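Homework help board

Subject: predicted structure for assignment chain

Our instructor gave us this sequence and asked us to write out the predicted structure in token form, then describe one feature. I got the tokens but I'm not sure how to describe them. Can anyone check?
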Amino acid sequence: MASGNGAGAPANPVKDVTTASFKADVIAASARQPVLVDFWAPWCGPCKQLGPVLEKVVADAKGKVALVKMNIDDHPQIAGQLGIQSIPAVIAFDKGQPIDGFVGALPESQVKAFIQRLLGPGAGAGADEMPGLEEAKAAFDAGDVGGAAARYAAILQADPENVDAVGGLAKCYIAAGDFSRAEQTLALVPPAKQTAEAYISAKAALELAKKAGPKPDIAGLEQAVSANPSDWDARFKLAIALNAKGKRQQAMDQLFEIVRKDRAWNDDGARKQLVEFFEAWGAKDPLTLAGRQRLSSLLFA
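My token output:
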């Protein structure tokens, strides 16, 4: 992709990175400064919206952060290994590791906030965030699903098209086991906004919850794994069940054990399931970032 040729774009084109050059252009280069990798494709409309915004904000950072682009049509391997299923997706690397990221064509203010967060403490979140979203998420993370749902509903009364609130409310229904209401809530998001990370995350979380079923047998699966640690099918099902019960770290550990011991099992099934976890948890979730770092260590050691 020949970048930097639009109106107001930087004078120097953004470098296109390939599978072969990824270690040099991203892993090694991120030892000097954070490197943003913009995963895109020629057919992706939101990618074309985000590209000029990224280039402008990176140029405004005056060399403190670098930007490269990777066409996933020509080079799908890296995106797949890092757990990227939706584009545009931007992953920030620092000192050889993926440390943060986002999905979707964010507005310039939020891209600026993202880069400020990379460059130092105190940058904070995007100025456009509606008051109440942070409190709603904190309530949800603390296990107060009812309180979180009430906060998200209040936000939606004031701003019915707030995709973050829709996604958050859907996750509340998922946590309560009401998959039907979760589906109805997600149906409120118009197609044009279904590339938003909050929608993608909630949609993936719903699919995972359905896969686990209403009453996953964690105790039985743990017994099966204890009796035969190489029973990858039981371990895989245990990971899904653990995630459904909110035991995400343990779920991730089970899958990494499969990846470490038998990467090819079930057509790379454990890594693919990790990808689904990352998508459901969200690009900025600490466990997603930690998981991608572990994958990166396996891939680029």
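Reply (TA_rk): Your tokens look well-formed. For the description, you could write something like this. The domain at 133-209 is CATH 1.25.40.10 (Serine Threonine Protein Phosphatase 5, Tetratricopeptide repeat). That's the kind of observation they're looking for.
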